[in-house]
Amino acid sequence: MFAAPGMLDGVRRRLAESGAEPTPARVAQALREQGRVLGDAEILGAAEQLRSELVGSGPLESLLADPSVTDVLVSAPDRVWVDRGGGLELTPVVFPDAAAVRRLAQRLATVAGRRLDDARPWVDARLPDGTRLHAVLPPVAVDCTCLSLRVVRPRAFTLDELATAGTAPPGGDRVLRALVRARLSFLVSGGTGSGKTTLLSALLGLVGPDERIVLAEDSAELRPDHAHVVRLETRPANQEGAGLVTLEDLVRQALRMRPDRLVVGEVRGPEVAHLLAALNTGHSGCGTVHANAAADVPARLEALGTAAGLDRAALHSQLAAALSVVLHLVRDRAGRRRIAEVHVLERDPSGLVRTVPALRWGADSFVAERGWQRLRELLRGAGLEERAASGREARG
Questions:
Q1: Quick check: helix, strand or coil at residue 352?
Q2: What's the predicted TM-score (pTM) here?
Q3: Domain annotation for the chain: domains and CATH numbers
Q4: Is 276 helix (H, G, I), strand (E, B) or coil?
Q5: Do the beta carbons of residue 309 and residue 173 sit within 8 Å?
Q6: Per-residue pLDDT tens for 159-172?
Q7: Are 129 and 149 in contact (CB under 8 A)?
Q8: Does the CA dihedral 380-386-389-395 come out positive or negative?
Q9: How far is CA 331 from each of CA 94, 196, 223, 328, 359, rounded to the nearest angstrom?
Q10: Does residue 291 contact residue 192 with C-beta atoms inside 8 Å?
Q11: Strands (DSSP E) found in the chain
C-alpha cells in the first residue's frame, strides 16, 4: 500500500532540500513538521517507500531482485509487466501515478550518467549493476513514460543449464561444444529477446582458459565465465558533442589487443567491415545479429556493409572467408527460447554467399539437413565423436 501522495510529497521535498537519507527517524521528523501523527508501522512504511524511490528502483525493486526475471516493462502506472522466460506477465505492482514513473526513469537515467528531460526525451543506457535501461518520456510516449529494464545477471548460464532448459535439443550441446573447440567463427542470429546474448555468453564460457577473449559491445551485457576477458563498451557524446566512442572504434582497438577470440556483442552498423576484415586475417570471432531467419543473415550483413562503404561483391567475398556457421534462435509461442536451426555458409554460382541448413530443431535431437556433411567436416577433430543429429538428411 502506498502512503498518501500529498503526505509523501512534503516529506520528499524536505529530504531533497536537506540532502538527507530517508531514515525512519528523518521521515518521522518530516512528518511531524507537517503536523502528521502516525504509528510506527506507517512511519516505517513511508520511510521504506521513500528510500526505494530516492535511492533504489522504487516499486520495481522486488521484480528486479527476482532471479527468474529477465525483463521489466512499464507502460502505465498500473501496467507493469515481467518476463520470466515464458512470455510477458502482468504483475500486481503499481505506481501512484504517471509522475512517479517519470521520476523513477529520470533518476535511473541520472544514475547511468545520462540526461532524460523534455529536450532529450529518451535514453538508452546501462546502470552500474549492468541492467540495460531504456526510457521514453511523454509526449513522445503517449500518456505515460515507458520504461524498459533488461536484467543482466552477474553469472552467465552454463551450456548444461541451457540444454536442461531446452535451448538445445537432447545431444545438441555436443555440436555447440565442438563448434567452440574447432575455433570456427560464427554468428548467433534471432529476434529481440530470443536469447542471443545468453547463448553467446554460455558458449564463450567453453573457450579454453589459455585463450584471451576481447569483447566489444554497445552495452556491456555479455558475462562469460572465463578467466581472461577484456571488456570494451561504447560511449555516447557529451552535451558538447565530444567524446563519442563507437562500436567501430572498439573493433579497431580490439584488434590491437591480441585477441584469440574477437567478440562483437551485436553487429549492427559499419563495424561489420572491420569485423569481417579481422576474421580474414587469422582471428577467430563471433557475435550476434538481428535476423528473422538464418537464411536472412547474408542480406542483413550486406545492408550493414553498405553503410560501411563495402559494395556487394566485396562484402560477400569477405563474408565467404570470414564466417562458417550461423546459429539461429527463436522464441516459440510458449515463450521458450531454442535453437531452431544451424546453417553453414557457401557461395552460390554467382559468387554470393548463402546459408545452407545443416541442422534443425527436433524434439529428440537435431535433425540433419543437407548441409550436415559440410558442418561435420568443419567440426572434424573437435571431439564430435557421436552423431548429434537424427533422421535422414534432407534433400533439395
A1: coil
A2: 0.79
A3: 1-55 (no CATH), 58-153 (3.30.450.370), 159-390 (3.40.50.300)
A4: helix
A5: no
A6: 999 999 899 999 99
A7: no
A8: positive
A9: 28, 11, 21, 10, 17
A10: no
A11: 71-76, 79-83, 88-90, 122-126, 132-136, 146-150, 186-190, 213-217, 229-233, 261-264, 284-290, 325-331, 337-347, 353-360, 366-368, 389-390
